[in-house]
């Protein structure tokens, strides 16, 4: 019985120490646990405009990979004329977004 209590007490102490370390890191570094975003981060804005000539026309945008030291944060897409669907190419790790007409017929300008 004494060994069980000692094991439980040791486990509780380890949990308290780990939670303390986590809270200290979060307090000191804020939301950026891996370090502050600064000169090594980029904000990229892509704007495109044109005219879709057919009802089944699509625009495919290849996205950058999210791996190793390159991570994508706060990625979002917006268009009032086109609807989008994020997709992943089958068999590869490449990501893409497929934009298509939102139901209007004929030539449709987009931005």
Give a written overview of the molecule:
The protein is 25% helix and 23% strand. The chain is built from 1 helix and 5 strands, in the order αβββββ. The protein has one helix at residues 2-29; strands at residues 50-52, 58-63, 82-88, 95-101, 108-110. A hairpin with a 6-residue loop joins β3 (82-88) and β4 (95-101). It is elongated. The model has no long low-confidence stretch (mean pLDDT 81).
Name the features:
111 residues; alpha+beta; 2 domains; 3-stranded antiparallel sheet; two-stranded antiparallel ribbon; 1 helix; 25% helix; elongated
Low-confidence stretches: none
Main beta sheet: strand number and arrangement?
3 strands, antiparallel
- Supply the number of helical segments: 1
Total discrete domains: 2
Round the Cα radius of gyration to an integer and report it: 24 Å
Helix content range: 25-40%
How do the helices and strands follow one another from N- to C-terminus? HEEEEE
**Cα end-to-end separation:** 72 Å
Instruction: Tell how many strands the DSSP assignment holds.
Output: 5
Report the principal-axis shape.
Answer: elongated
Strand order of the largest sheet: 2-4-3
In what range is the share of β-strand residues?
Answer: 15-25%
* Whole-number mean pLDDT: 81
Specify the structural class.
alpha+beta
